[in-house]
Amino acid sequence: MTDPQSHDAPETEEAQAATKAAVFNAAERLFALHGFQNVSVRDITAEAGVNLASVNYHFGSKDALLFAIFRKRTGELNRERARMLHEAAERHAGKPPVREILEALFAPPLRWGDPANDRRISIQFIIRARSEGTAEMRDALQNDVSHLERFANALIAARPELPRETVYWRLHFCLGMVHNNRFAEFDRLHHLSGGATREGDVNGLLSRMLDFAEAGFLA
Amino acid sequence: MTDPQSHDAPETEEAQAATKAAVFNAAERLFALHGFQNVSVRDITAEAGVNLASVNYHFGSKDALLFAIFRKRTGELNRERARMLHEAAERHAGKPPVREILEALFAPPLRWGDPANDRRISIQFIIRARSEGTAEMRDALQNDVSHLERFANALIAARPELPRETVYWRLHFCLGMVHNNRFAEFDRLHHLSGGATREGDVNGLLSRMLDFAEAGFLA
DNA sequence: GTCTATAGATGGATAGAC
DNA sequence: GTCTATCCATCTATAGAC
Question: Which of A14, A60, A96, B70 could form a Cys-Cys staple with A88, CB 3.0–4.6 A?
């Protein structure tokens, strides 16, 4: 924009954005598949088909790249969950039932995990960040509980007869159910059940999770 | 034993065993606290107060040390769970109810996680191995489902009216509840609940988990 | 802006002295 | 058997050529 040769700028900007996006996507993919410490800047730039210095030029450092991916994806996921919770509240005069609150919590990560969904890799990245993330990521997770507070408050309103402490623990159990949906765990379950569990049936899995967790909240 | 100077052997063997144990314990502790890739052989030997070559001398390599810890601890945990399941079966003529099956699944890792328990660090190591472990560990987890098969079969017998597929998925949900019991997740929950959740009350947490999961199996 | 070449640091593993 | 000194591979980050 400040460049007088404006007919050159679009090409340059596009090339820059394309390189940055290629690095971003390659990094997200490799981190999700192989773990954060097992992927080098060389792996990422080779996968993206760009030169080695691109990571530092566009993101500053390997850790900053990781954090950029983390922040973008968690932001998207949290917004999607918040929107579903808001819609559920609107449908029920501000007091949605437990099942619809849990659906807003479960459905977005499950839909992302659909084998037919491009975001499949993003959700695996987020799950990995919870255990392998940098100190910066863990601090961000630790401090940004405002997103979960909305869910906790909705659940407390839906089950006012339960002690608040009990609701928090049960929310913790539900989050454990979500975080366990990793490739390796699905594979293990598939092996254990002799092939009876089908990973691809996202809506079926959502129903199963809601049945289980809703009953747990009624106890 | 084959050494004619038998009065020297005990001292040497003890020293050897002591060094090996020091390496083992320091490694388990550091891996559990900081992750596998973030701990170097130098960190381990420094923490153990032994020389750098000890890891390779006693265990062959860093990865072999990791795997030795993994195999020992998972073996201990699985035996403890199997024993509790066996005892539950004996109490109920071979057909224990869902709650006692789940107690055999939940109680050992929870008791290990008690802040007053020396094994607190071991269970964090195992949980970390599930997501950060080497290919060798993941293969071992993948192939050793015999331990879980006993629990799956007991649950199928306790709920014969449910489709087997449903029982497998619900077992998967229960395992997610267990695997989510990490330091970082407890801290986050404590923060979210404004300090209402007490991590130290192991028996209370066990009851809460059993209430939630048992109700989920009744759905 | 892009890319090559390389600096600088750290890692696992091991040879060889004792 | 124990330990020091060192090898060699690999990593991130960056300087400097174009």
Answer: A96
B57: tokens are 């001398």
Q: Which of B61, B50, B53, B64 has its CA nearest to residue B15?
A: B50
Alpha carbon B206 to its chain centroid, in Å, reads: 16
As a whole-number percent, the residues of chain B with pLDDT over 70 amount to 94
The dihedral through the CA atoms of B183, B189, B191, B196 has a sign that is negative
Give the per-residue pLDDT at A12: 65
Within chain A, how many helices (H) and strands (E) appear? 11, 0
Task: Classify residue A91 by burial, with Cβ atoms within 10 Å: 0-12, 13-18, 19+.
Answer: exposed
Give the domains, in start order, of chain B with CATH numbers: 13-59 (1.10.10.60), 71-218 (1.10.357.10)
Least CB–CB distance from B165: residue in A35, A142, A197: A197
Q: State the nucleotide closest to A3 in CA–C1' terms.
A: C1
Q: Report the distance separating Cα B17 and Cα B193, nearest Å.
A: 46
Would you place residue A165 in the very low, low, confident or very high pLDDT band (cuts 50, 70, 90)? very high
CB < 7 A to strand D: residues 21-40, chain A? 39-40
